[in-house]
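Kindly draft a sequence, keeping tokens residue-aligned:
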Amino acid sequence: MLNRYPLWKNILILLVVLWGLLYSAPNLYPDNEALQITNESLNLNSADVEVITTALEAAQVEFFGEEISDTDILLRFDSVEDQLRAKTAIEDALTDDYIVALNLAPTTPGWMQAIRAGKMNLGLDLQGGVHFLMEVDMDAAQERRMNDDLGNVRTILREERIRTRGINLISNSHLEVRFADEAARSQARRELTDNFPELQFQNRESEGTFILDMRMTADTTLQVQRDTLQANRTTLLERVDALGVAEPTVQQQGSNRIVIELPGVQDPAQAIRILQRIATLEFHLEADIGAPSLSYEAYEYEGLLVNVDNDVILQGDRVSNVRSTLDQNGLPQVQISLDAQGGTQINRVTRDNVGRMMDILLIETKSRTNAYLNEEGEETEEIEFYEDKRLISHATIRTALPRTFVITGLTAREANDLSLLIRSGSLAAPMTIVEQSVIGPTMGRENLEAGLRGVQVAAALVVIFMLFYYRLFGLAANVALIMNILLIFAVLSSVLPATLTLPGIVGIVLTVGMAVDANVLIFTRIREELGNGMPPQQAIDAGYNRAFTTILDANLTTFLVAAVLFTIGTGPVKGFSVTLMIGIMTSMFTAIVGTRALINLIYGGRSVQKLSIGYYRSNNKISGIQTT
């Protein structure tokens, strides 16, 4: 029978509709303004909660819905004003070791969260937050690599008993080794060439001294820059993820810059503090007994002073992976994996130092706020950055270490903390903030409201037009249009890890206009068939079947264009193309399958003489088609 779907198809369409309603519903629940209090070095306890509660009571700030765990405390507030007042009060009550970050807390019911029905992630322009453009110091990255090579050159020549007249770092890409005679230089070159294939060697003489120049090649320089940029990007992403920021953006820009966007964070000073506290790791040997005092530095470790040799065995940027595990006896350990060059370096050093202690230093760039009076006599605050070095591991080398090795003799807490520090602490090169901007919560909310108004106005105009021009068929198209918008929200909320931005809303507005294109083609085809004298049931079937190819071709070409934009575009273009692609897929379903199901329910299986589809031209006359 014409225009009748089988039961299974109707049930499937109903399930899709229910899924769209269910997974788009969480977006109706607004977020609460919240504060997230964390401490990177200590677990939070009841004493911290008491200090925070006392501070808020003294400031007369009300809060609710507190969520307390070992790692953080989340407090909710009724307004942005209360949130900001509470932040100031808590920061005054706690020390600088605590991070008090502005955030947003969801109010989605627990049963929705249990089935993973959550809200769409909103971008910086819709939610507010901070934007940073950070530049990587590539000269420092190259200099660090050459310093690393310098230490290894010194070790190799010492092991091979080749005497030198000095090893000097000439520039961030040039290292020179001086010798008393040509034979020593030739022997050294043979040994060093095998260990440093990425460097270019050249002999020269100056004032009776035989010099071996070691220079970084152009390809090696480019590779160091690429590796440094990628390592810093990964480290930054892990740190902001650990803060709990929803959908942060950490993207490469150009050859030496990284863009960071933190939606929901409204305090740039706090964000700077978080980013600048990222650390660098260094691997050293313990200094020999009786070593000159200038060759080592003393650090405290578990109540004891440990003399750490100044020579760096390995930099933290050589660590490729780290995780906390248990050994065969069930005791905690930290497994560290190095890249190829790092594995070669650690094996060579530890092979000749079995039984000695190996130390790992964590070097953090921290910040503190200093208050002073400016020239006008006004109190001003400025952020000062300083280095904090800590000895985080002091373990015995039991055998020559391969590319992957373990650190044992730790408690479970120490093993977990050490793996976390190494995993999120390595920064391949220093970074500076060259640009920063803040989008306040009010501005973000205004952008979101303006975008939603655009969707509502576009949808309302389309609904009015379709009702006026296509009557009952237009009503079916409008129901499908509403379902199309709900399905887009459902996909963005639960299926894709996408972030909705203002350009994304533009894509949704465009989709609203395009969503009824397919129905216009179908309904126009039905009118033509009716004008040619075809019975209503056959006209409905012919309209849907014969317009399908045209609809598919039009939507497929638009989808391919959107896919190209997503592939080659940047952030805003990607946001637009994602919602456009999703809208095309959902509109194909709602406009063809959805409206067909509604029309089938209205007209299918019945003896119909007339259709409520507006007006059409027949035999050079305008005829009004009304429902029987």
